Amino acid sequence: MDISQIEELVGILRSSRISELVVTCGQEEKTTVRLKKQLRPQRAPRLVPVAKEAPAAQKEAASAAEEHADYVTARMVGIFHSLDSTASVGSPIKAGQAVGAIESMKLMNDVVSDHDGVISEILVEDGMPVEFGQHLFKLQKS
């Protein structure tokens, strides 16, 4: 089997609804080619609530709360995976502690907090694609 035949098989796999293709050929020396699609998880559409205009006192309180918040951000592009045991709302986090992982090119890379604090909000779900610099967790300074 040559490269053009393998490329043709890849094209067939991409254009079809099947997720895996296994081809065996040859009489004496059998060659097996296994191609598999990596399926992306289906995400439900997000509903964004329409917020009413907040009074000035609420805006000031919210901006004061933001001043006391830090974020754990993605340092690369990939698929986010949470660590359920440590990454939940209310969990205390130390600087340098792993709070998740980002899968990129089949490698898992730890997501490490740069700050001490308590997780006040989880901004991404397990299995979601993330971008470089994207906020993953909101930390309340301790």
In terms of topology, how is this protein built?
Layout: H1 3-15, E1 20-25, E2 31-36, H2 56-67, E3 69-73, E4 78-82, E5 92-93, E6 98-104, E7 107-112, E8 117-122, E9 129-130, E10 135-140
Antiparallel strand pairs: 1-2, 3-10, 4-6, 4-9, 5-8, 6-7, 8-10
Written overview of the protein:
The chain has 142 residues and is α+β, with helices and mostly antiparallel strands. It folds into two domains: 3-36, no CATH class; 68-140, RNA polymerase II/Efflux pump adaptor protein, barrel-sandwich hybrid domain (OB fold (Dihydrolipoamide Acetyltransferase, E2P)). 18% of the residues lie in helices and 36% in strands. The chain is built from two helices and ten strands. It has helices at residues 3-15, 56-67, and strands at 20-25, 31-36, 69-73, 78-82, 92-93, 98-104, 107-112, 117-122, 129-130, 135-140. The strands form three sheets. A four-stranded antiparallel beta sheet has the order 3-10-8-5. A four-stranded antiparallel beta sheet has the order 7-6-4-9, with no helix packed on it. Strand 6 (98-104) and strand 7 form a beta hairpin. The mean pLDDT is 79.
